[in-house]
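Let us walk through a complete example step by step. Step one is to write down the protein sequence. Step two is to encode the small molecule, adenosine-5'-triphosphate, as a SMILES string so that its atoms and bonds are unambiguous. Step three, shown after the inputs, is the structure prediction itself.
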Amino acid sequence: MIEFQSVTKRYDDGTVAVDELDLTIDDGKITVLVGPSGCGKTTSLRMINRMVEASSGTILVDGADIRSQRPAALRRGIGYVIQNAGLFPHRTVLDNIATVPILLGTKKAAARRRAEELLDTVGLPRELAKRYPAQLSGGQQQRVGVARALAADPPVLLMDEPFSAVDPVVRDDLQEELLRLQSELGKTIVFVTHDIDEAIKLGDKVAVLRVGGKLAQYDTPATLLAKPVDDFVAGFVGRDRGYRALGFLSAHGVEVAPLSTLTLGEPAPVVTGWTVVVDERRRPLGWLSAKSTVEGEIRSADLVAGGSLYVADSTAAGSLRAALDSALSSPSGTGIAVDAEGAVVGGVTADSVLKVLDAARRSGEVPS
Ligand SMILES: Nc1ncnc2c1ncn2[C@@H]1O[C@H](COP(=O)(O)OP(=O)(O)OP(=O)(O)O)[C@@H](O)[C@H]1O
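Step three: the predicted structure of the complex.
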């Protein structure tokens, strides 16, 4: 656990970057610090590993005041990942990853073997081991940065805008990868971003800071979206927060109604309403419009593209947001529900989603 107790940072020129911060960061979870530019996120993060010294207040890591340890010893247990990865340009990928363990006394061969394993861990092919950072894409560099931070197996990982420099598609991949990694590794991760969507996607808890270094709200993403404490937080989390909050509510209980299907290549019947066309394994290929006049067999060219799919797995129902999105994005107005193998199991409507939402509100599951 990392605890900030009334921590203030006043820089030499008098700027108060962090003002009386009280924050408890849970072990094994991702805690995100988010807020507008200059609100003190990076300063807060760097105070944890003493790259920046607090002016007043106390920071405890596992109950021990960080001032009682030498910075080098403290940092051994704290990995650090920054934007643009911060790799050593003249060292190969493998040597970049192996640097810290070698510094800490691990034999070169063992450190390199471990570095190779870490390439697998962060989803990079081992062929990249001998390349230099400039020979990698931005996303690949970022993964090497994560591998390097993990090399000494620190229990705590500080990540400062690690994915901000890559394009949105790569960023999305890196975020998914981090969540996958975290489900296996269970590190204590403190993650800084200015992007509220990233904060909501990654954070078990999110601390919203306002300029002047004051904590505005510290809550789970679901609570932040449902109950922002004031106009600043409401404005910061965004206008469509009601819709996004549906992402945190299970669609368990949403009615999946029977849906008539046809198989590609089948002779077309006289279709009376929108009908889903599936392949031989019942995976959806598109819709046959109520107005279409197909003669002979149904071909791909006759189909209208479908919307997003809602995975209604018997063990883990998707979110209300996924169910509603499937309905809203479907050309027929009915979302296609599929099982874990992607086979059509039925349809969901916006009405059925709203009914479940209404019930959740009345039972108090949704704060109002
Ligand atoms: N070395 C420094 N000396 C003086 N002021 C500083 C120093 N470093 C940061 N600041 C100021 O402290 C405040 C907080 O900066 P910090 O970098 O922690 O914010 P941030 O929330 O991480 O910002 P950004 O999202 O823009 O990176 C800002 O007003 C900044 O100008």
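Step four is interpretation. The first strand starts at residue 2 and ends at 10.
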